[in-house]
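Hi again,

Forgot to attach this to my earlier email, sorry! This is the prediction with fe (iii) ion bound. I've pasted everything inline since the attachment limit keeps bouncing my files.
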Amino acid sequence: RAAGPDGFILLPGYFDRAAQESLLADVLAGIDAAPLYQPSMPRTGAPLSVQMSNFGPLGWIADRKGYRYEPVHPVTGRSWPPLPQALLELWNAVSGWPQPPQACLVNIYGPDARMGLHIDADEDARNAPVVSISLGDRARFRLGGPERKSPTRSMVLSSGDVVVLGGASRRFYHGVDRIYPGTSTLLPEPFAPGRINLTLRRVN
Ligand code: MD5
Ligand code: FE
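Structure tokens for the complex follow:
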């Protein structure tokens, strides 16, 4: 599948149902070892609407002190669990990047969670692509451009879809407008209704 002019690639249905179930099992095992926590905004401490965890040598965290990558869980102080093999294979298949991912951020959306427009800028490796995997209920994803005022487009992401944010799109504004509860049967309680997004990243 060819990238658009911005380096953005949507791979609908990349993972079939069996592969989604296998990835979900990896995620559930990971969050057993590295429990979900509630990230908060720097300074204000206002909670983000998603819950988070990470896999890999580094994890992205958000708390009163700021946004940053850390090698350990902010609550348990233990290393993040290793990246599941299936995610390393996905990265090799779609990223076109010669080095392996260093972080996999796990975002857990409830039925009312959203993510405002932002740019991912906490990585030194901002030329390396980000690879995103959607599991569970559908979501409306919004992709803008390099400036907050740039025009935006939106698309629905479904369970099993993979997005590669390479090239210029890696530095574009983006967000999640809403979840469509009850549109997938993949997730068990207490994650349904809701959505899990995994993002693979190079950090440095
Ligand atoms: C999500 N997560 O669906 C999204 C998918 C995040 C986040 O935005 O920061 O955790 S990742 C989408 C992404 C990453 C980097 C660049 C662009 C999109 N982009 O330019 O569109 O939970
Ligand atoms: Fe982002």
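The mean pLDDT is 97. The two ends are 27 Å apart (CA to CA).

That should be everything now.

G.
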